[in-house]
């Protein structure tokens, strides 16, 4: 029965405290959230943690849901913002941890090693500047330019520019890689 | 080899392959966590507080909720920021921080709550973050700086519906009003006005000085939605927002018995100068257009395409069921040679009923009855199909009209309103008319409705009760469905020798440029059979003590005319199907007699300005509006005017 109801409707119900609607909605979109989280972070563990952050905060965010927004668009915005917050905190941590010496060096090396085993695209995505990666992750998830501009809070023109810029970056990386 | 970067599908596929599936155990854990938090949140938010009681507990939690409700985006950082300020800068910074434009009672209380509790909470947080705090001071302070600025920018926007109401008493009333259904679980900081209704932003017309700008141009408007919207607000015990009030739609809601046109003209036009009820030193120029009364027997066959929004949100008593009843009322009025088709839109658009003669009522009724709400709204796909159906149905001499019934969402398909308008404007050339009927409240996109109807040569009406459906669809079947003149524009040139200042009351969303008047390619409003259209100017004669602007000292206005005329009224219109417009010209002469129709129109215009908190009314109040409207009620066969007086009384009570 619930599956027949559209997202907007469930979301409105959830915003008004319907826990069944909230569960149905989350069950429906969890994988999508995780996939986007992975594309935004480029690391599986990081994506799992980000998804957990989002799950923890979602009940609070839910009350702000406005039915004028398409639910997936709204949800993507939540994910993108959570990813930004996480990055900001990561910067803080890195700053705080910059003096920790060998332990951190070892850890970074271990991470680099894992990176080599990843496929080319994931590594390339990770090498992109944050704003290009966010844009590309959304566009590759079949989000329209208009929606992406709404999610990221920039103009549609900026989105188009970023997509072409991201393509340029990827192409350059590929050439570099092929050459070496 | 092809370049994979130009082909997005390749990249997409690669990305799909690279994305791992979520860990099943983590997924279960995360979902459980979310559900637990959801349940906790419901408990803490269970008791909404819309009263003026001081909260007994959980003050700091209230502050967090307030920040959350301000903006999702900055919620996380904002709370961090508050803690950071509490920790390291303490109160002085908070007090010097950005002050919101309007502090409501509830907000002031919440600020007090902050003052009371912040020290305690900060201390508590400090213990928890003790270990890290030394290293985190600097970055946190950095973070703290930016979200606060963001909040400052966000807050006035969040408060806009309240800030728009300039009169503080009504703002307070709003806060104290009982929560509307559906918001029961929101905490006390949720403003009751947080629905997603959208209204066109238009400031009331300003006073114009005749010597500086003697010509005023606008398009006529036969929409009535604004009146029905404010009626539903007032009946719900709330004063409408000033931006919901469009005076021309209020005035034109009522049928008037203006002089019928001569045989060859589609409508009559008349300008009369009467006294201004709210200012004895100014006068009103009352412009009345009266369309030919519908000769229903001789009307051409009609093709109607009902385009019905069946999205999930339509599943409410006052939406889809009311819509079905309304259409059934209208069906009874159609003639056997008329044809009806039904297209629905929700997720995917579909034709529910092929064009069917109106005589086959059973089939049409059955198709209407089967309509069910569900799915999201794809307004544009449905529109395309409706236009295609209407075009296929049209035969020589027919009138085709799409009647779009929606609760206001067009959130799939063309989501750019401009593009949607363009689409409809292009379709208008094919001769198919579009009317928009709005149902239900809370989600109504009045701005889009207006834009669609205006671009589609149609009428926008808001239907909140069956009697409103009766008025829009049955009593005015002729007017609503048979256009007799298209692109009707009004231009008034005032005579600076007689008129010092003038002000058009209403028609803000219909203003045209002076040069648009003679440009037949510029779209304007339509008059249907039997429609009456009223426009009012308040004019200040030269030498009147009510004049608000002083005459210039150095640039004495060159007044060459010695005419007695107040001004000159020009009208342009096209007959349906014609490309070039015809012109009607009439001088505006002083000293007219006010009929009760004119007085009633003036009373309604005054009522609308009271709702807008207009500065031009002086001490004129609802009491005088009620007296004037009561005296000018006339025959009032349908009881519309009596209802208007009732609404004035309601507004009077609510505004005190």
UniProtKB/TrEMBL annotation, chain B:
It comes from the Bacteria. Gene3D superfamilies: von Willebrand factor, type A domain (3.40.50.410). Pfam families: VWA (PF00092), vWF_A (PF12450), YfbK_C (PF12034). Residues 303-477 form the VWFA domain. InterPro entries: CLCR, Uncharacterised_YfbK_N, VWF_A, vWFA_dom_sf, YfbK_C. This is DUF3520 domain-containing protein.
């Amino acid at each position: 029965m619930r599956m027949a109801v559209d997202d907007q409707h469930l979301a409105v119900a959830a915003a008004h405290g319907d826990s069944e609607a909230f569960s149905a909605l989350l069950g429906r979109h969890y994988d999508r959230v995780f996939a986007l989280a992975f594309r935004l972070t480029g690391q599986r563990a990081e994506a799992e943690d980000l998804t957990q952050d989002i799950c923890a905060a979602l009940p609070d965010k839910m009350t702000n849901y406005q039915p004028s927004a398409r639910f997936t668009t709204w949800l993507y915005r939540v994910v993108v913002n959570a990813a930004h917050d996480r990055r900001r905190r990561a910067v803080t941590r890195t700053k705080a941890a910059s003096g920790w010496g060998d332990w951190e060096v070892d850890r970074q090396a271990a991470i680099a090693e894992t990176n080599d085993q990843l496929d080319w695209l994931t590594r390339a995505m990770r090498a992109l500047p944050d704003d290009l990666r966010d844009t590309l992750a959304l566009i590759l998830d079949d989000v329209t330019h208009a929606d992406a501009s709404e999610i990221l809070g920039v103009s549609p023109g900026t989105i188009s520019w970023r997509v072409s810029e991201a393509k340029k970056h990827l192409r350059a990386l590929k050439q570099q890689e092929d050459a070496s | 080899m092809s370049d994979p970067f130009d082909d997005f599908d390749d990249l997409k596929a690669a990305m799909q392959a690279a994305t791992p599936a979520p860990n099943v155990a983590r997924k279960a854990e995360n979902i459980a966590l979310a559900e637990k938090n959801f349940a906790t949140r419901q408990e803490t938010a269970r008791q909404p507080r819309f009263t003026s009681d001081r909260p007994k507990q959980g003050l700091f939690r209230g502050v967090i909720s307030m920040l959350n409700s301000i903006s999702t985006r900055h919620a996380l950082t904002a709370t961090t920021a508050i803690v950071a300020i509490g920790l390291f800068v303490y109160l002085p910074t908070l007090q010097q921080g950005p002050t919101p434009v309007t502090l409501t009672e509830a907000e002031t209380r919440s600020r007090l709550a902050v003052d009371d509790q912040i020290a305690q909470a900060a201390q508590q947080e400090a213990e928890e973050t003790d270990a890290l705090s030394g290293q985190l001071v600097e970055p946190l302070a950095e973070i703290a700086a930016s979200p606060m600025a963001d909040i400052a920018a966000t807050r006035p926007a969040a408060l806009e519906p309240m800030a728009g109401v300039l009169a503080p008493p009504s703002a307070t009333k709003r806060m104290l009003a009982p929560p509307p259904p559906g918001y029961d679980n929101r905490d006390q900081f949720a403003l009751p006005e947080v629905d997603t209704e959208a209204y066109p932003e238009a400031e009331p017309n300003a006073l114009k000085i005749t010597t500086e700008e003697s010509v005023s141009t606008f398009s006529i408007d036969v929409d009535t939605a604004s009146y029905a919207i404010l009626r539903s607000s007032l009946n719900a015990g709330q004063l409408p927002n000033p931006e919901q009030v469009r005076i021309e739609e209020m005035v034109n809601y009522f049928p008037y018995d203006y002089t019928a046109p001569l045989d060859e003209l589609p409508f009559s036009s008349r300008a009369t100068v009467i006294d201004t009820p709210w200012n004895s030193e100014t006068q009103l120029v009352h412009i009345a257009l009266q369309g030919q009364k519908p000769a229903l027997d001789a009307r051409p066959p009609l093709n109607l395409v009902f385009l019905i929004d069946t999205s999930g949100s339509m599943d409410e008593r006052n939406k889809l069921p009311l819509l079905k009843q309304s259409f059934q009322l209208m069906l009874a009025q159609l003639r056997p040679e008329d044809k009806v088709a039904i297209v629905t839109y929700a997720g995917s658009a579909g034709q529910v009923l092929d064009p069917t003669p109106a005589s086959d009522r059973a089939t049409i009724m059955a198709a209407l009855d089967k309509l069910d709400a569900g799915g999201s709204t794809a307004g544009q796909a449905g529109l395309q199909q409706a236009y295609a159906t209407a075009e296929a149905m049209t035969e020589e001499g027919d009138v085709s009209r799409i009647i779009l019934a929606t609760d206001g969402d067009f959130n799939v398909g063309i989501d750019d309103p401009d593009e949607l308008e363009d689409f409809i404007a292009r379709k208008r050339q094919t001769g198919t008319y579009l009317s928009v009927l709005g149902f239900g409240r809370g989600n109504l996109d009045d701005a889009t409705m207006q834009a669609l109807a205006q671009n589609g040569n149609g009428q926008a009406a808001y239907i909140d009760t069956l009697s409103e459906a009766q008025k829009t669809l049955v009593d005015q079947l002729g007017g609503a469905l048979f256009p007799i003149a298209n692109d009707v524009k009004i231009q008034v040139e005032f005579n600076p020798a007689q008129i010092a200042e003038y002000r058009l009351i209403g028609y803000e969303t219909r203003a045209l440029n002076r040069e648009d008047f003679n440009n037949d390619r510029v779209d304007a409003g339509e008059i249907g059979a039997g429609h009456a259209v009223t426009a009012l100017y308040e004019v200040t004669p030269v030498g009147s003590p009510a004049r608000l602007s002083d005459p210039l000292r150095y640039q004495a206005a060159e007044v060459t005319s010695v005419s007695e005329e107040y001004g000159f009224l020009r009208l342009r219109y096209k007959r349906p199907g014609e490309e070039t417009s015809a012109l009607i010209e009439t001088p505006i002469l002083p000293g007219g007699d006010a009929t009760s129709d004119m007085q009633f129109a003036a009373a309604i215009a005054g009522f609308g300005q009271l709702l807008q908190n207009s500065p031009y009314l002086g001490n004129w109040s609802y009491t005088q509006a009620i007296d004037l409207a009561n005296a000018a009620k006339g025959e009032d066969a349908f009881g519309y005017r009596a209802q208007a007086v009732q609404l004035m009384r309601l507004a009077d009570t609510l505004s005190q």
